[in-house]
Input
Amino acid sequence: MIDVLVAGGGPAGLATAIHAALAGMEAVVVEPRPGPVDKACGEGLMPSGAEALRALGVRVEGRALAGIRYVDGEDRVQAEFRKGSGLGVRRTALHDALSRRAAEVGVRVVRGRVEEVRQRHDGVEAAGLRARWLVAADGLHSPLRALLGLQLPDTRPRRYGLRRHYPVAPWTDFVEVHWAEESEAYVTPVGADLVGVAVLSSRRRGYQEHLADFPELAARLTGPAATRVRGAGPLRQRVRSRVAGRVLLVGDAAGYTDALTGEGLSLALLSAPVLVGCLRSGDPRSYEGAWLRLSRRHRLLTGALLETRRHRVAGRLIVPAARRLPALFGAAVHALS
Output
C-alpha cells in the first residue's frame, strides 16, 4: 500500500511528496496535466519560502529579492528583508525544478485525476490506487475540498488576479506593489530581462484596462508582452477544516485569504513538512492546529489590509501611513518574510 497519495502535482503537492519520500515514505502524485504547469501567480517567494526550497534540495534559477516596496503616486515606502533574500522565479521553472527533485528522491507521478475518494479505517482508495493517506493539493478551487464538504460559503466581495510577463530588465530588486483606488499591481523580477506583473481587483475587466490605472508602471512596460494573460479567482477560499479522516489539505486547497501579501507559495512550501511530520508522528489531526499557527500572521495581516481596502478613504491612506511609519511597515514585512 502506498504511504502518501497526493492529488495535484503543483508546488504544494510536489513539495509534500518530496518531504514524504525524504522521510522514508512511498509517495505517489496524481496529476492530470503534463508539466511544467503554469498558472496565474505572483511568482515571488519570501525568504522563508526560498529557504524551504533549499531545504528540499531544490535548485532553481531566479532573481534575488531584497524586500517590498509600496508605490502610490508620489508616496512610496520600502523595507528590506531582514533575514536573507526572497526569490522571484517563473512558475514553470519552479515546477520543473520540483519535478526533477521529486524524481531524484523516488516520487512517482502518474497521469490522472482524483474524482472519487473511499475512506476505510486503514486507508484510502482514489484514482485506482490504495494509500494510507491522501493529500489534497488540487488548487485554489479544490474539487476534493468540495467533495469532502470542507468548503465554507463566503459573502465578501470577490477578488480576482491577472498576470502576464514583460521582456524588460528589472529596475529594482524589490517586489513593487503599486496601489490604485480599486486595485493593486505587483511587479516581481523573475529574470535578467523579465518581470511578472500581476493585477488584483474586485472589478472584472481586461488586463490592459487594469494596467491603465497605473500610468507610471505602464510607461515602463513598452513593447509586446512576453506571455499571455492568465487569471485566477475568486481568491478568498474559506475552509471548514484541513483534515477529514485520512485526507489532509495543503497549499491553496487548505484555504486562501488573498494574494495581497504575496505569501501563497511560501506558505505552501512551509506547510508541506509540517503535514508530513504530523503523519510520521501518528497524529494527523494535529495538522489542523499546526496549519493555523503557521498561517496566523499571514491571515491576520492580509485580512487587516483587505478590511482597510474595503473602505475607500482608509484604503487611500495605506501607503501614506506606511511612509510616515516606516518602522511599522518594516515590522510587517519582517513578520511576513
